[in-house]
Amino acid sequence: RTLKIGLIPGDGIGKEVIPAGRRILEALPASLGLKFDFIDLKAGWETFQQQGVALPDETVSVLKSDCHGALFGAVSSPTTAVKGYSSPIVALRKKLDLYANVRPVKTVLTAPKPIDMVIVRENTEDLYVKEERTIQTPDGPVAEAIKRISYRASHRIATIAGEIALRRQKIRAAGAPSIHSGPLVTITHKSNVLSQTDGLFRSTARDALKDPRFASVAVEEQIVDSMVYKLFRQPEAYDVIVAPNLYGDILSDGAAALVGSLGLVPSANVGEGFAIGEPCHGSAPDIQGQGIANPIATLRSAALMLEFLNEEAAAAKIYAAVDANLEEGKLLSPDLGGTAKTEEVVQDILRRL
Ligand code: NAI
Ligand code: MG
């Protein structure tokens, strides 16, 4: 099988880590029967400065018509509004209907307190529909935002969370060491206060997970604030967490802090038959150009993309090579307390692959 993969490095360290993602895919053993065609694509702040758009139409159309998946690095976004600029990854999620943002947060098993969870964040609605308005009143301005939750979006996000729980169980059953005994999905919400919006999310997710396919998946729910508390006290208790957009955004950055460095945490934006792997970190202007960015978030994102393209065996090889590098702990980048350059970390992982 030949997979066509779009490469969108973006800005800053995106340009240093996406080439590493390409190399790890090219280095997969031939016995897997996988080949790759890579297509270089543009997006980001530099693209905006050159072309006046942050996400050229060509990037979108090539992804839609020619690619199975993509790797996206990071883009630099201005902190105040710049006319004509909007975040390309947010636009891509919409244009390609990438409705799930999947973020595994994992330590190696030999860590003092191993963690192995996946946060599945709804990616298309909630407060992020960005329908805001400001009303002028005699007491000053009042700003409002729409929080939109639909049955359809809640149902499909809970369904993919259930599928991810089953797939993780399958990988464990195949002998991968794990801290979890069985598949568990935790539904996160605040329906005690927001009974209609979060209420709909909660009841729909429960419904979706009642499907007989998920008979072996344990389902629990947790109110989002106590969830944060428990996530920090007892992170080992979580397997798959499913959440509406805003809570998922916050929980996933918080969870990333548990494993020590943003440079380790991958994500995937997933739609029907399409996936974009994306490291969770940004363009890291403070370290760009020094050759010291940690490539692991990107390598794991490449593996995650493969998982959603039904290439689990290839994904497992990448995860194992990365874990072996971390467990040995000799060639670590500076964000992990080491002195290795990006290139040395990549070389070590390629050798293990
Ligand atoms: P950041 O993630 O770029 O950096 C935060 C800190 O983590 C920095 O100290 C950085 O050096 C470190 N770091 C991040 N990735 C690393 C890696 N792979 N290896 C070693 N150290 C790493 O977040 P920040 O500084 O808030 O944002 C910088 C720029 O990135 C901004 O323009 C922001 O808008 C953009 N950004 C883009 C994202 C995306 O494209 N998805 C996500 C987050 C931020
Ligand atoms: Mg975020």
TrEMBL record:
Cofactor dependency: Mg(2+)
SMART domains according to UniProt: Iso_dh (SM01329)
Domain Isopropylmalate dehydrogenase-like: 4-349
GO molecular function, one term: isocitrate dehydrogenase (NAD+) activity
Keyword terms of this UniProt record: Amino-acid biosynthesis, Lysine biosynthesis, Magnesium, Metal-binding, NAD, Oxidoreductase, Phosphoprotein
Keyword rRNA-binding assigned: no
Keyword field contains Phosphoprotein: yes
Gene Ontology terms describing biological process: isocitrate metabolic process; lysine biosynthetic process; tricarboxylic acid cycle
GO cellular component: mitochondrion
EC number of the protein: 1.1.1.87
Record's catalysed reaction(s): (2R,3S)-homoisocitrate + NAD(+) = 2-oxoadipate + CO2 + NADH
Pathway as given in its UniProt record: Amino-acid biosynthesis; L-lysine biosynthesis via AAA pathway; L-alpha-aminoadipate from 2-oxoglutarate: step 4/5
Domain of life where this protein originates: Eukaryota
PANTHER family per record: DECARBOXYLATING DEHYDROGENASES-ISOCITRATE, ISOPROPYLMALATE, TARTRATE, HOMOISOCITRATE DEHYDROGENASE, MITOCHONDRIAL
Similarity section: Belongs to the isocitrate and isopropylmalate dehydrogenases family.
Protein name: homoisocitrate dehydrogenase
